[in-house]
């Protein structure tokens, strides 16, 4: 079935993250991908000395109204980095009005990493993001985001007790399926923890040293692409993890390429994993 989905996140003109990663990855997954840019930045905010930022919050309700008049609907909605706290209400309106009945709403909180909020976000943004995430069918937080969404203390090293506590709090607040990314119980490995229908499953894989910008967005996009191709959540989480590792493999030896991963060269690997080739 040919599906049209919508992704809402920023355009970082340079930086291989958010929409410039989501659109090609979702297209490679065979999905017609409509976009709604939340903001336009000259480049992402991780590691550059500055950036331009054009907030597109006030475009959102106007675009929704147009889509309503044209009867344009989406089989799934996937949100990432958003431009303002106010925007989150507009995003909720779009999901409510334009997502087909039975379609999934997937939210990547995309607001923090390594114990810190991204530049430009504050406590009010976190409160709004809670509302969005707890209304979603699937969320993809990293440990930092899960801690923020549950008002828990962030821990750099942790065990199962800590992730169980985060899981319990997220479920209590209304989270449905949770895909925790970057969960590492020992130094040599990392992985994803998928909580669905009261069951937790962990996919552990090797850890490649170093931090790589944009891998959260590459991961979430690849996950959504697999999910909307009919793979179950845990299988989609595995496909996305293997693809993200492949992207890092293709990038790690190039020290000039610090701002993103070379996800384009690993797309054939992803398409094969989806059994589209
Ligand atoms: O990759 C997440 C992301 C998306 N968009 C913008 C960012 C970041 C992370 O820093 O700055 C603009």
List the helices and strands and how they pair.
Layout: E1 4-14, H1 18-28, E2 32-43, E3 53-55, H2 59-70, E4 74-79, H3 85-98, E5 99-107, E6 112-113, E7 116-117, H4 123-133, E8 138-139, H5 143-149, H6 160-173, E9 177-180, E10 189-196, E11 199-206, H7 215-227, H8 233-251, H9 267-273
The structure holds 3-hydroxy-5-(hydroxymethyl)-2-methylisonicotinaldehyde.
Detailed description of the structure:
It is a single chain. By secondary structure, this protein is an alpha/beta fold. It contains nine helices and eleven strands. The chain has helices at 18-28, 59-70, 85-98, 123-133, 143-149, 160-173, 215-227, 233-251, 267-273, and strands at residues 4-14, 32-43, 53-55, 74-79, 99-107, 112-113, 116-117, 138-139, 177-180, 189-196, 199-206. The structure holds 3-hydroxy-5-(hydroxymethyl)-2-methylisonicotinaldehyde (PXL). 3-hydroxy-5-(hydroxymethyl)-2-methylisonicotinaldehyde binds at residues 10, 12, 17-18, 41, 44-46, 81, 110, 118, 214, 216-217. The site of 3-hydroxy-5-(hydroxymethyl)-2-methylisonicotinaldehyde has 14 residues, from strand 1 and helix 7.
- Unreliable segments (pLDDT under 50, ≥5 consecutive)? none
SSE-based structural type: alpha/beta
Shape: globular
Give the mean pLDDT: 97
Q: Could you estimate the helical fraction of the residues in percent?
A: 25-40%
Total beta strand runs: 11
Query: Helical region count?
Result: 9
- Ligand identities: 3-hydroxy-5-(hydroxymethyl)-2-methylisonicotinaldehyde
How large a portion of the residues is in β-strands, by DSSP E?
15-25%
